[in-house]
Amino acid sequence: MRFFTALRTSSAVLALPVTGFFFAYVFFTTKGRMGHFSSLPWPAEAAAFAIHAPVPLAAAAAAGLAAVEATRLRALGVWETGPARSAVRVALQPVLLVVLTMAALMACITAGALLIAGVAPDIYVLQLFGMVVVLLTAHAVIGFLLGRRLHALYSAPLAAIAVFVGISFPLGTSSWWAHHVTGAIGQINFGEAYSLPMTVAAVVPTVCLALALVVALGPRRIRAGAVVLSLAIAAGGLLGAYGITREWTSFAPAAKGLAPVTCEGRVPEVCMPAAGSGDLRAVQTELAGMATKLHAKGIISEIPARITDITVSGARQSDTAGKEWTLDLGAGNPDVPWDGVAIGIVGMPCETPDWNTLHYGTLWTARTMGVADDYLAWLSRESRSFRTGDGKEQLLAEMDRVNALAPDEQKAWYVEQLRLSCQGGRPG
Question: I want to staple 271 with a disulfide (CB 3.0 to 4.6 A). Which of 41, 116, 263, 403 is the partner?
Answer without folding.
Answer: 263
